[in-house]
Specification:
alpha/beta, Rossmann fold, five-stranded mixed sheet, 28% helix
């Protein structure tokens, strides 16, 4: 890793932000780095006719279309990936690859943001119901879940594939013993559990990760949450928002709003003009600045539709019609 391109101190900076001004300064610094030293992003910026030196504010930074992760190696010159995350996809579809030189940066990102929202993982029994994801290599969601499980310190934390009976028994025992439990799961598997083993939860929170992966018909998030709330006698369902191409997560504690850690900013673009910003509170395409994406690209134009609120929280409302249905942590709204 050439220190002239990425000094080791840069990996600390996303976690040292104290203000919006700090965020903007680091974003501009990373924009210039990628516009000069990331071949894919440089080509994109040049194709847009953007003069790098003229970009002085975050509002003028171009966002790289997420689809380029499917057929291009999005990575700074001189870096080599020690880990590759790959997206899920339907049969025959082209999946995305995220080349990650520093897995520890991803770990610090999700552990820090999770702890800020939910407390240290050591406070939880973590049960991850992730069929489909566990059945293929390269899932960033599985990587995160396994690290949370390892840090939980609970010998009964673990991943679950198809044994819903065994999982239900463990959940009942945890409820009887008053164990604070996080049940992290993909929606189609949570629905299977709800149909086969409905039970009241008092000490367990349910966190869905989005996406049916073709296992069930897509459904609106509100409908999914109502089914799960009724089956498990809870008043809210939590959610995690992340994707293969990002090294950070946003979290929702059940109010339909995702909240970001300090090193992420979500913006919206006009649905008819990908280079124009959408007005605050209006539905638009979701653009994400993830300052932990130091090696690949911090500026991602997603295929998701959403709405950003004045406090920086955001809603995910669906996908663009021309987006294929792949496992990128959202449901149709």
């Amino acid at each position: 890793m050439p220190l002239s391109i990425v000094p080791s101190s840069l990996l600390e900076e996303p976690f040292r932000l104290r203000s919006a001004k700090d965020f903007d300064a680091l974003a501009i610094r990373l924009f210039r780095l990628h516009a000069l030293s990331n071949p894919v992003y440089r080509e994109y910026v040049q194709a847009l006719g953007v003069e790098v030196a003229a970009v002085r504010t975050v509002d003028h930074i171009p966002f790289l279309p997420i689809g380029l992760f499917r057929n291009r190696k999005v990575l700074l010159d001189g870096l080599e990936a020690t880990l590759q995350f790959t997206s899920s996809g339907t049969t025959g579809s082209i999946t995305s690859t995220h080349y990650v030189p520093w897995p520890e940066l991803y770990e610090r990102s999700f552990l820090s943001s999770f702890s800020a929202e939910y407390g240290l993982p050591s406070r939880w029994r973590v049960l991850a119901l992730l069929p489909a994801y566990l059945e293929r290599p390269g899932s960033s969601l599985v990587y995160m879940a396994e690290k949370l499980i390892a840090q939980s310190g609970d010998a009964r934390s673990g991943t679950w594939l198809h044994d819903l009976d065994g999982l239900a028994q463990l959940l009942r025992e945890g409820e009887d013993d008053g164990v604070q439990t996080l049940l992290l799961g993909v929606p189609f598997a949570l629905l299977d559990l709800a149909e086969k083993h409905p039970m009241p939860f008092e000490h367990t929170i349910i966190m869905e990760t989005g996406g049916m992966k073709g296992r069930r018909p897509e459904m609106v998030r509100a409908e999914l949450h109502e089914v799960l709330k009724k089956a498990f006698s809870v008043d809210r369902i939590h959610s995690e928002y992340g994707m293969t191409e990002l090294l950070s997560q946003a979290w929702s504690q059940g109010d339909g709003l995702y909240r970001c850690p300090p090193w992420i900013r979500v913006l919206t673009r006009d649905v008819n003009d990908p280079l124009a910003r959408a007005n605050a509170g209006r539905t638009g395409g979701i653009n994400i600045i993830d300052l932990c994406n130091i090696a690949s690209c911090p500026f991602i134009s997603t295929q998701d539709l959403g709405r950003v609120h004045a406090d920086g929280s955001f809603e995910v409302l669906g996908r663009f019609d021309n987006s294929d249905l792949r496992g990128c942590n959202l449901l149709v709204e």
